[in-house]
Design goal:
Blueprint: H1 4-16, E1 26-30, H2 33-43, E2 55-58, E3 63-67, H3 72-81, E4 89-98, E5 108-117, H4 135-147, E6 152-160, H5 169-178, E7 182-184, H6 187-196, E8 201-209, H7 220-248
Parallel strand pairs: 1-3, 1-4, 4-8, 5-6, 6-7
Antiparallel strand pairs: 2-3, 4-7, 5-8
């Protein structure tokens, strides 16, 4: 019988172009090709997987980065395939829409939980199971942010499969009722599938738009401005956080089923 692990060991290289053994103990996830390109340029490492669903690279210190694409199903796929490597920690660097008046473009959000509005995670754990990050991983990322005097927000993120919803008044009312601080398309899935697969996981999100206000809806021009002003810092924080965990030997996978 074909096991899930056997499938993952075959499919992780097939999806990314990278052999399983070339992945490091700590892995950054993103859905932006420019993050991956900046990472590879900084560490002079090769990006593999051109023409495949996902692209990946690993630096000389053993920190990997994967561009898994956009959306909840892709997030579930990479979190399933990573069981082939059994990483010590996975951190998602994504963008989100700010839903609170106190949340501004350029703010960083370290989610304490995510609302499972995407549906994909229901294939892994019952709906009553909360989507949570690994506490010790987020604790370490938080300490890195504070040590550098970077302001950040915490709160619950609403994860949805819908990309075009800003016109939908009923959905907007649902978001207000949920009292979420931000909205994205991957965080809840990464948390739940990571929990299901016993992978320590977290997310550091960058607020890229304010979709609850008419002039805050993301456009190509506004997204380019956010990338220009904040992407380098976002990536730097992710690299330093996961590199620091490895350097200091922090054990973050502390649970057993």
């Amino acid at each position: 019988m074909i096991t899930k692990l056997e499938l993952a060991k075959d499919w992780l290289p097939r999806y990314t172009g990278m052999p399983v053994d070339d992945f490091g103990d700590y892995i950054l996830l993103t859905n932006f090709s420019n993050y991956l390109e900046k990472f590879a340029e900084q560490f002079n490492c090769e990006i593999v997987g051109e023409g495949r669903p996902m692209q990946a690279t690993t630096n000389s210190a053993g920190l990997s980065m994967v561009n898994f694409g956009i959306g909840s199903p892709n997030a579930a796929t990479i979190m399933d395939l990573l069981i082939a490597r059994d990483p010590k920690g996975v951190l998602f660097l994504g963008k989100c829409g700010g839903l609170k008046k106190s949340t501004e473009i350029g703010h960083f959000i370290l989610p304490i939980a995510a609302i499972r509005g995407e549906g994909t995670s229901n294939d892994y754990l019952p709906p009553m199971v909360p989507a949570l990050p690994s506490f010790k991983l987020h604790k370490f990322v938080s300490e890195k942010l504070v040590s550098k005097n970077f302001d950040y927000r915490t709160g619950v993120v609403y994860t949805t499969n819908r990309r075009v919803w800003e016109h939908d008044d009923s959905f907007r009312e649902e978001l207000v009722a949920a009292t979420a601080i931000a909205i994205d398309m991957e965080t809840a899935t990464i948390f739940v599938v990571g929990h299901h697969n016993q992978i320590a996981r977290g997310a550091l999100l960058l607020v890229s738009d304010l979709p609850m206000t008419p002039d805050g809806v993301k456009t190509e021009e506004s997204d380019e401005a956010v990338t220009r002003d904040w992407a380098d810092l976002h990536l730097k924080l992710g690299i330093e956080a996961l590199s620091g965990i490895g350097d200091e030997g922090e054990t973050i996978k502390h649970y057993r089923y």
